[in-house]
Amino acid sequence: ADAAAAVMTGAKGGVQPTLTQLEKLGITGVTPGNLMAILTAIAATADDGSQLDTMGKLQGLTSQAAADAAAAINAINSGGNTSPDDYTKAGVSGVTGNSQSAIEDALSGLAGGGTLTAAQIQAVVDAYNAVLAAAIGTGSGGATPPTPPTAAQYAAIGVTGADKTPGGLALLGSAVTAQSSGSVDSVAELQNLTNA
Q: Which terminus of the chain has a smaller tally of CB atoms within 10 A, N or C?
């Protein structure tokens, strides 16, 4: 009963079912790698649960979401013509039309590119979004200073040497903050700032 209730709650955008709960219901094809995509699909159904009120409907939605996730991850890894919706289908959040090209630039240069999982892609998205959020430009006036990216975030997108000297990371953060997001939307631009 708890597993079924979790599916219905998930349909309303509330607490989602766990992988174990879906398995207890007899739903097949759910893996740790595609769980987020499946939960996103569940949340996108009607709030009244009418699209998930039979095992057949739930299994159908799960199978379709898993297939869509696999196809989307393949498209992302191949560098094909993708959209933010493809990232959503893959179970990856935070990709917008404004951030997609920067994120894809980072993905294309990573070791293991072409075989990245949804979790690895999500880590790159989160890291690059932190960089883009920090790049507010010098004309921001009295705006609250953004949180500078961490060395781990720079490394996640393929920038090397961000913390090679004491104080270097803080200086790089200050340099990124002084840029507009359009000036740091490629790994090469960030690497040039790091090397300066």
A: N
